[in-house]
Amino acid sequence: MRPFGRSLELRGATIKSLHSVTDKTPAPLPEEFSSYEEAAEFWDTHDTTEYLQDSHPVNVVSEFRERRYQIEIDESVAQVLRTAARKKGLTPSRLASDLLRQRLVTRP
Questions:
Q1: What is the pTM of this model?
Q2: Which of 26, 77, 100, 102 is 20 to 30 A away from residue 2, measured at CA?
Q3: What is the DSSP string of 33-91?
């Protein structure tokens, strides 16, 4: 019996071992991509776990500039909102926000 790790003969055919398949050296990681498209194409065809030695932790500070809320409204109200927004050149979200702000600010 041959030791595992090189090759295995099976009825005259040679099958490569698991080690020879997984011991591939990944393609070199570019220093810089010329565009987002180039980066996307590279990562679409490469496994990020093969480049862990090239990664490093980073500190990230993020501030939320605004919050978005999802509310349920009746379909008939949504249709009126869409129509009114289109006439004013606004998105339905922007018009709904403006209307709520006006209504809530004018209340005591």
A1: 0.40
A2: 26
A3: -SSHHHHHHHHHSS-GGGGGGG--------------------HHHHHHHHHHHHHHT--
